[in-house]
Amino acid sequence: MTDAAGAAVLQRYHAITDHRSADLDEQYAGSLDPELRPHPYKVYPTLPPIPIPPAPDLPPIPALAAIAGLAAASSPAPMNLATLGRLCRLTNGVTRRLTVNGETFGFRAAPCTGARFHQELYLVCGDLDGLAAGVYHYDPDDDAVRQLRAGDYRGALAAAAADESALTEAPAVLIATSVVWRNAWKYAARAYRHVFWDIGTMLPNTLAVAAAEGWPASIVLGFADRPVARLLDIDPDREFIVALVPLGRGHPVPAPRSAAPLGLPVAPVSPREIAYPITGEAQRATELADPDHVRRWRAAPNLAAPAGPTGPTIPLPVVPPADWPRDPVEAIIRRRGSTRRFAQEPISLRALSIILSAATRPISSDVFGPAAIPLNELIVAVNAAQGLAPGIYRYWPDAHALEPRRALDEAASRELMTRLALDQELAGDAAVDFWWLTDLPRIMRHYGARGYRLAQLGAALVGGKCWFAAYACGLGATGLTFIDSEVPAALAMPDEAAVMFLLAIGTPAPRPDRR
Length: 515
Fold this sequence. Notes:
By secondary structure, the protein is an alpha+beta fold. Helix content is 32%, strand content 19%.
């Protein structure tokens, strides 16, 4: 498929899954069938679990400094089954369980749309203490790993990514995938967007834990999809590979070795699945075929950054990192969730400044380059923030300033945010709403159809860091969906701007007594 043809598929996908309040019933026809509700865990019934032993306490690196890339452990922690297992647990593991009406629910380390938890984690490693070289799947349900392949396959993974430098000497690589049906059961074809939203908001946990362990980490998005799927023994039309995360340095990988099909039995997640053909078309259109394709794709220069504000700006107060809240990484991960009610209270300008400053720092990656907000613009809708008039602003990270775009009074701003967020009151009750928007045709002219993945994931990665930072500042946050077509004009953006992500931030309201 040519780049132009692939981009056309993604434009069609994005248009088909545009939320329009008039036809939501049609968009979601067939979803939420209780008889088809997917099991929330991937189960390999024939593979024995390898329990993860306890690890020494995670170094108390401040969470905000960790996600900003400003702090790491003074010396790398040993990489072994205990420490890698903890990284998996704090990325996608079960951090607490709740039993309601006899049914037990596991709450994960990172939020997920609709609590459908479609993300999966795999490890590819060389010989480590307590973990032989191999390919492993992490099971959040029993907090264990299972070996899919024995032997060192890091070279095969590096080859599939066209020998990206971070992969050529990493002792271990984390791979994030999505079993998309587990989300599509509730969200139909729009679930393909959620693949990137949910993995994007999950990976800041990975990067923060790696920083606390003293392990260099980056996010690799250029790889040949089908060879990696063969290595993991997964069906690439049902489980989508999103990102490779090399961990550590200084362990050269061996020569590539072939990965024969395994055909490992996997328990079905539902009695049957509903097919959404446009989702599969979108994924296939964004795939890279082989290492040569990856090299050509990655050779595209970084997309030019926006020129800068065209009018007056409002500088945000500069808060030195030494004065940021200092709660450690694990404490914030265990605290973070999705806020269910906001008090209609203003947040401080200081907290807003810290969140934006900590979250909009370059992300180590093979394609994003030095961009603070990869491939997106960040619009801040202020309902109530001390020292700022309600209204719509654009955030400029280099200047750490807000450019006013549209003035509103508080009541009008709250009403507008509620409507744009599909009448979800959380957006109107929040103190601020962060919107990420991009020019999709421009992105895909530059990066081909895979640019769609980059734009969605780039927004969600920064959104996930903002989410993380909000909790570190003692606030709450939650991701929301939206009526796509109404957003650009409401936020004083060009008509061609496409919404990638929405995050509401504010002061949590007390939950009603469930009794």
